Structure to design on (502 residues):
């Protein structure tokens, strides 16, 4: 606490003044936490003074509060590009990042508990710098670090406002990815990374963590060929322990393929708090490194307000599946693969018997790395399989445009059209022939974006047999054989023994 307090004082975070009349005084408190490393071990104990932002008043204490963070797809693409271009990726941590931003608003805060002197007990802190807990703290920090990076010669990328790049005198490039106070610096020349680290140290206090091994709780490994992989094995172990599944028999599939029929006879849970917590943890896995469970977790998350005993049973099955596949890691690249963006789009027509809305799924890979995936319920009721596939294809098309833009800014521009595989011939014909028939004239204009991209040569649609459609695992629950097959095609390597039974 003393170290944190002295840091705040030396930073000029506030000045003590008499409380002004008719002004809101924001509360303050100390919070304590343990910072863990990639193995789940305690790295250090931290005490932090925070403002009680919930006591702030809109209009006087704050206005704009939005602050971006790097997208997970951007991280995976950057690591895939780094593996291809044989870049080093260094990890930096900014100490007390939020304290560097200068506030434009006039905010008053109560003095820190435990550090109030008798002589000045009546006074309050007039905040000069941002502090943790303020509603606008993240926004102020992002504006501050962006300005610092621009002064160092970096340009902010359009595809992701938390990705920055700089052209080097040698002709190469250096990239910087920002996630709040965690920074990744990628470059093929280690000395250039060192120059940037030293330049940043002159402006902010950073900790050099060396080559990336853990980022946002995700284990990052680098193989002998320079390709990266992502793993969340330690997080899964904690999840298994928390829900008392250490000795449970693993499952070969994450959800019963007949779930939608079983769910009709479910009994509502009396207490769904634990269900909420579990689904949140599973979503964290599905979003970062486990696309094989994305569809199943998405289905269960739709029941978050009224889960049944069937939903709880299936959520436990996902944990048992994670027990079976605990050592899976998402491989971000292969030496023999061309570095071309390839996509797969699929839909499960009217699979949910409760409202008959379809589920869209897509996967995008580049150089053997699965960098983007989605499993999402469609916002409209499709009247045919073709329509459901067409809506899913439209959603995938939007992702194509963004990924191509991102790759261009990472100097991996896709010159050829991006191939997107689809397993419905009627859908392919509908795009190619620009047909408008009685059964399709009602389709919303926004879904016709795919046609424009196809006609302009941005995407190239190709047929893929249903048994080879890897995006199928992102649309509905599948059996053990298909789950294992598609997991391997997604780049998930590892797994449990073949002899385990579901």
């Amino acid at each position: 606490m003393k170290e944190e307090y002295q840091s705040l004082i030396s930073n000029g975070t506030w000045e003590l003044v008499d409380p002004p009349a008719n002004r809101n005084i924001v509360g303050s408190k100390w919070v304590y936490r343990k910072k863990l490393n990639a193995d789940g071990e305690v790295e250090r104990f931290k005490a932090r003074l925070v403002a009680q932002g919930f006591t702030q008043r809109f209009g006087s204490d704050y206005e704009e509060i939005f602050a971006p963070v790097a997208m997970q797809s951007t991280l995976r693409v950057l690591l895939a590009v780094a593996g291809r271009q044989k870049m080093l990726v260094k990890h930096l941590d900014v100490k007390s990042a939020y304290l560097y931003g200068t506030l434009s608003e006039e905010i008053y805060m109560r003095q820190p508990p435990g550090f109030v002197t008798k002589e000045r007990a009546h006074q309050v802190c007039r905040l000069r710098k941002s502090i943790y807990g303020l509603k606008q703290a993240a926004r102020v920090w992002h504006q501050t670090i962006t300005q610092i990076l621009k002064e160092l010669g970096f340009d902010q990328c359009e595809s992701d406002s938390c990705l920055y790049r700089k052209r080097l005198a040698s002709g190469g490039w250096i990239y910087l990815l920002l996630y709040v106070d965690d920074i990744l610096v990628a470059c093929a020349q280690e000395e250039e990374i060192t120059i940037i680290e030293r330049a940043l140290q002159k402006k902010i206090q950073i900790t050099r963590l060396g080559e990336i091994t853990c980022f946002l709780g995700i284990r990052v490994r680098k193989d002998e060929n320079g390709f990266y992989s992502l793993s969340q094995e330690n997080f899964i172990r904690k999840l298994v322990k928390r829900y008392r599944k250490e000795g449970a028999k693993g499952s070969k599939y994450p959800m019963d393929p007949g779930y939608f029929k079983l769910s009709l006879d479910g009994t509502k849970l009396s207490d769904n708090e634990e269900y909420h917590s579990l689904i949140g943890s599973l979503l964290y896995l599905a979003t970062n490194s486990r696309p094989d469970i994305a569809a199943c977790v998405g289905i269960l998350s739709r029941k978050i307000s009224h889960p049944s005993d069937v939903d709880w049973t299936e959520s436990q099955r996902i944990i048992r599946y994670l027990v079976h596949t605990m050592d899976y890691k998402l491989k971000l690249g292969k030496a023999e693969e061309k570095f071309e963006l390839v996509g797969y789009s699929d839909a499960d027509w009217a699979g949910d018997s409760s409202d008959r809305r379809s589920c869209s799924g897509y996967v995008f890979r580049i150089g053997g790395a699965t960098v983007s995936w989605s499993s999402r319920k469609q916002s409209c009721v499709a009247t045919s399989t073709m329509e459901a596939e067409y809506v899913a294809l439209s959603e995938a098309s939007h992702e194509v445009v963004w990924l191509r833009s991102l790759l261009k800014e990472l100097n991996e521009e896709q010159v050829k059209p991006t191939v997107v595989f689809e397993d419905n011939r009627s859908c392919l014909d509908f795009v190619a022939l620009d047909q408008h028939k009685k059964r399709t004239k009602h389709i919303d204009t926004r879904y016709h974006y795919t046609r424009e991209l196809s006609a302009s040569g941005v995407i190239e649609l190709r047929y893929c047999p249903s048994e080879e459609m890897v995006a199928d695992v992102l649309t509905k629950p599948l059996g053990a054989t298909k789950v294992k097959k598609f997991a391997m095609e997604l780049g998930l390597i590892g797994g449990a023994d073949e002899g385990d039974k579901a």
About this structure: The first strand starts at residue 14 and ends at 17.
